[in-house]
C-alpha cells in the first residue's frame, strides 16, 4: 500500500497536477486522493486505469508490477528499433522505443538497452536542440534503470549515464554519481581464471584471461588518448604526439586497430598538421580512412592467439549510422585546416563519402 501511495504521489508531481486536479480527472473527492497518497486507503481497483491515464503512466507502473523480458527478447526489440532507424529515420524509431518503454516501464534491461540506443538516435538528429532532447530522454531511462536494477545492469546504467551527463555538460552530476560508488580497485572475479586453470578447466580460464586482457588493453588505449587530449589543451603538441603514438603502438601490438585505431590516427593527423608536418599528417589521415573502411569487421581480432577465445560480433546497424558521418568528422577538425587544399586530403574525403553511401546496402 505504501509503495502505491508513493507511486501515485510521484506520478502526480511529475505531471504537475494538484491533488484536487487529479481528483477532478478521475471523479473522486480531494480527500480521497489525499488518503491514497498518505497510504491510509487504496483506490478502488476500477479506478487504477483512470488514475494511470490521468498521470500518463500505466496501472502496472503504479502497482510496481514488473513484466520481465528475457535477454533475447530485449535484444530483438532493440534490434528492431535500430533497423527502423536505418530504414525510416529518427521519428519512427524513437516513437517505437517510447512505446516499448510504455509497455514495459519496469524492465530494467530494456530500459538500459533503450537508454543506450539514444546514442544511435542522436546520430540522426537534425540539430543540437533535438540531439539534446534525445540524450535527456536517454538519461531518464538510465536513471530509472539505475533505481530499479541490481548488479551488472545497474553498473552498466551508471557508466552510460555518466557519459550522457558529460555530453550534456552536466559534469557535476556525473562526478557526484561516480563519487557515490564504492571504490572497486580489485575485482575478485579476476581470481577465477587461475583457479579454473588449476581445476583443469583450461578453456574457461583462457576465455576469462583473454576478456581481462582485452579490457585492460582497451582502457590503456583510452587512458593514453585522454592524456593526449590533456596535452593538447595545454598546447603541448610534442607531448600529445608522443602519447598518441604510444596508444597506437598498444593498439597495433594487440591487434586492436579496427575500432580503436581510426580515432587515434585522426587525432594524430590533427596534431601533426598543427606542427606543420603536412606529409606525416596526410599519412595519418590516410591510415584513418584505411581503418574506417575495415570497420566494423572485427573478425581479425579473433585470429590473434591472445583473443581467439573471445566472441566478437560486428554491428551492421552501427555501420549504417556511423559511416555516413566519417567524412563530417574530418571536415569538422579545425586542426586539419592546413591540409584542405592538398590533393591527398581531397582523396581521403572522396573515399569517406563513398563509404557513407555504401554503408546501408547490406542492412535488412
Automatic annotation (TrEMBL):
CDD domains: HTH_XRE (cd00093). GO terms for molecular function: DNA binding. Gene3D superfamilies: lambda repressor-like DNA-binding domains. Keywords: DNA-binding. Residues 8-62 form the HTH cro/C1-type domain. The keyword DNA-binding applies. SUPFAM superfamilies: lambda repressor-like DNA-binding domains. The keyword Cell division does not apply. Pfam families: HTH_3 (PF01381). This is Helix-turn-helix transcriptional regulator.
Amino acid at each position: 500500500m505504501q509503495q502505491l501511495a508513493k507511486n501515485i504521489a510521484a506520478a502526480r508531481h511529475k505531471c504537475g497536477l494538484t491533488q484536487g486536479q487529479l481528483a477532478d480527472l478521475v471523479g473522486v473527492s480531494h480527500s480521497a486522493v489525499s488518503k491514497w497518497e498518505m497510504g491510509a486507503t487504496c483506490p478502488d481497483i476500477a479506478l487504477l486505469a483512470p488514475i494511470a491515464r490521468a498521470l500518463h503512466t500505466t496501472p502496472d507502473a503504479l502497482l510496481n508490477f514488473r513484466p520481465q523480458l528475457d535477454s533475447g527478447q530485449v535484444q530483438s526489440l532493440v534490434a528492431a528499433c535500430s533497423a527502423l532507424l536505418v530504414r525510416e529515420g529518427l521519428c519512427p524509431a524513437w516513437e517505437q522505443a517510447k512505446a516499448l518503454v510504455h509497455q514495459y516501464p519496469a524492465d530494467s534491461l530494456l530500459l538500459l538497452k533503450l537508454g543506450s540506443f539514444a546514442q544511435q538516435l542522436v546520430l540522426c538528429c537534425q540539430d543540437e536542440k533535438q540531439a539534446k532532447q534525445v540524450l535527456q530522454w536517454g538519461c531518464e531511462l538510465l536513471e530509472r534503470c539505475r533505481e530499479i536494477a541490481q548488479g551488472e545492469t545497474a553498473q552498466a546504467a551508471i557508466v552510460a549515464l555518466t557519459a550522457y551527463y558529460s555530453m550534456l555538460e552536466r559534469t557535476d552530476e556525473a562526478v557526484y554519481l561516480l563519487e557515490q560508488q564504492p571504490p572497486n580497485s580489485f575485482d575478485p572475479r579476476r581470481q577465477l581464471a587461475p583457479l579454473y586453470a588449476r581445476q583443469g578447466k583450461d578453456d574457461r580460464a583462457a576465455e576469462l584471461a583473454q576478456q581481462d586482457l582485452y579490457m585492460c588493453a582497451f582502457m590503456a588505449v583510452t587512458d593514453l588518448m585522454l592524456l593526449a587530449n590533456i596535452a593538447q589543451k595545454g598546447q603541448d603538441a610534442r607531448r600529445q604526439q608522443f602519447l598518441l603514438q604510444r596508444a597506437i603502438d598498444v593498439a597495433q601490438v594487440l591487434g586492436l586497430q579496427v575500432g580503436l585505431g581510426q580515432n587515434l590516427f585522426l587525432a594524430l593527423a590533427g596534431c601533426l598538421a598543427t606542427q606543420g608536418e603536412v606529409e606525416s599528417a596526410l599519412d595519418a589521415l590516410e591510415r584513418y580512412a584505411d581503418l574506417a573502411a575495415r570497420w566494423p569487421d572485427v573478425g581479425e581480432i579473433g585470429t590473434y592467439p591472445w583473443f581467439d577465445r573471445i566472441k566478437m560480433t560486428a554491428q551492421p546497424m552501427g555501420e549504417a549510422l556511423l559511416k555516413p558521418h566519417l567524412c563530417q568528422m574530418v571536415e569538422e577538425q579545425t586542426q586539419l585546416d592546413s591540409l584542405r587544399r592538398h590533393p591527398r586530403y581531397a582523396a581521403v574525403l572522396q573515399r569517406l563519402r563513398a563509404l557513407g553511401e555504401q554503408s546501408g546496402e547490406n542492412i535488412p
